[in-house]
Amino acid sequence: MIAGLAVSACGFTPLYATRSDAGGVVTALAAISVQAPADRVNRALRIELEDQLRANTLVAPQYALALSSVLSEADVAIEQDTEVTRTNLTLRTKFVLRDMATNAPLYEAKAFAIVAYNRVPSEFANIIASRDAQARVAKQVAEEIRTKVAIYFERQGA
Question: Is the pTM of this model over 0.90?
Answer without folding.
Answer: no
